[in-house]
């Protein structure tokens, strides 16, 4: 099996000041021309769930309230997966180019999670006008903005370690 090596380009910070991504000094030139993008796609590592045991999980019992009784891990947003990669679209609040700090509205990563890549969100490549979803999640919000007001607690059935 071919192995791949990835190295973090930064770190997620979650604290009383809010949420941000700190980009390592050597990658500061890569931030050029991000001004004007309201959102970014952040590829990050579910480092808190990176274990041999977690990587072996391929099916999970009903993780969402209206989901099928058993689901394949690829049909979930679970951090437990063969390769614990995550992708989150984040709103850019402010970019401090000199210090490599990207202040963001929200990210579903824990403090200290490694960031592997950042890409600008562009509607021509990232937005789907009429996406199809299964009936069990068709009542979920249709946008990030709506998600902020949605009662996600009543949807998730899995525990913190799934």
TrEMBL record:
S-adenosyl-L-methionine recorded as keyword: yes
InterPro entries in alphabetical order: TrmO-like_N (IPR023370), YaeB-like (IPR040372), YaeB-like_sf (IPR036413), YaeB_N_sf (IPR036414)
PROSITE patterns: TSAA_2
Any single Pfam family the record assigns to this protein: TrmO_N
Domain TsaA-like: 6-130
Domain of life: Bacteria
Keywords: S-adenosyl-L-methionine
Stored Gene3D superfamilies: YaeB-like (2.40.30.70)
Family: Belongs to the tRNA methyltransferase O family.
Matches recorded under NCBIfam families: tRNA_TsaA (TIGR00104)
PANTHER family, alphabetized: TRNA (ADENINE(37)-N6)-METHYLTRANSFERASE
Protein name as it appears in the record: tRNA (N6-threonylcarbamoyladenosine(37)-N6)-methyltransferase TrmO
Organism: Ohessyouella blattaphilus
Gene that encodes it: tsaA
């Amino acid at each position: 099996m071919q192995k791949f090596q990835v190295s973090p380009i930064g770190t997620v910070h979650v604290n009383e000041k809010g949420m941000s991504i700190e980009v390592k000094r050597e990658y500061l030139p890569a931030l050029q021309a991000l001004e004007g993008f309201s959102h970014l796609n952040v590829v990050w590592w579910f480092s808190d769930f990176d274990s041999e045991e977690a990587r072996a999980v391929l099916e999970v019992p009903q993780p969402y309230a209206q989901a099928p009784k058993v689901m394949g891990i690829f049909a979930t947003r679970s951090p437990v997966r063969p390769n614990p990669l995550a992708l989150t679209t984040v709103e850019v609040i402010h970019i401090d180019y000199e210090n490599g700090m990207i202040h963001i509205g929200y990210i579903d990563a824990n403090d200290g999670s490694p960031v592997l890549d950042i890409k600008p969100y562009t509607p021509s490549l990232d937005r789907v006008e009429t996406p199809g979803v299964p009936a069990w999640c068709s009542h979920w919000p249709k946008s990030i903005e709506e998600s902020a007001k949605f009662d996600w607690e009543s949807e998730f059935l899995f525990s913190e370690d799934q």
